[in-house]
């Protein structure tokens, strides 16, 4: 299983070349038939905030983009379950306080999935053995 960090999800949906690295594509394509690519529901909120603050542009309206992106082949939205919420407040070791990052990391940990990210803090956290990370 794979969990996409918010920027990785945006890049994948928008056809950004940063998601076209061969090892990443191979892993993604392997999981598409099984709907094994997860996106935390908090990522939808993050996309909305980035659009509202004009930090990113997406194809079409936010509502349409989210509907399409959550229903793309292989993608499965992952709810903010009680298990994810509890994990997010009890992450081992030290991890920064960004609530969205904590929820995304917790989602990957609960699912025992690899997290696809370029976030340096998350990558560093993974190198401590707290998380399986695929670096972009």
From TrEMBL:
InterPro entries: PIN-like_dom_sf, PIN_dom, PIN_Sll0205, TA_system_RNase
Pfam family, one: PIN
Top-rank taxon, per record: Bacteria
Domain named PIN: residues: 2-127
Name of protein: PIN domain nuclease
Organism: Leptospira neocaledonica
């Amino acid at each position: 299983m794979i969990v996409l960090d918010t920027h990785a999800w945006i890049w994948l949906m928008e056809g950004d070349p940063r998601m076209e690295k061969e090892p990443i594509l191979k892993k993604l394509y392997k999981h598409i038939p099984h709907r094994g690519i997860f996106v935390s529901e908090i990522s939808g909120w993050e996309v909305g905030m980035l659009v509202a603050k004009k930090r990113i542009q997406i194809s079409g309206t936010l509502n349409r983009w989210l509907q399409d992106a959550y229903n793309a082949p292989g993608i499965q939205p992952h709810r903010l379950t009680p298990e994810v919420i509890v994990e997010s407040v009890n992450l081992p070791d030290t991890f920064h306080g960004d609530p969205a990052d904590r929820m995304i990391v917790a989602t990957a940990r609960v699912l025992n999935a690899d997290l696809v990210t370029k976030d340096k803090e998350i990558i560093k956290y993974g190198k401590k053995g707290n998380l399986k990370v695929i670096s972009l």
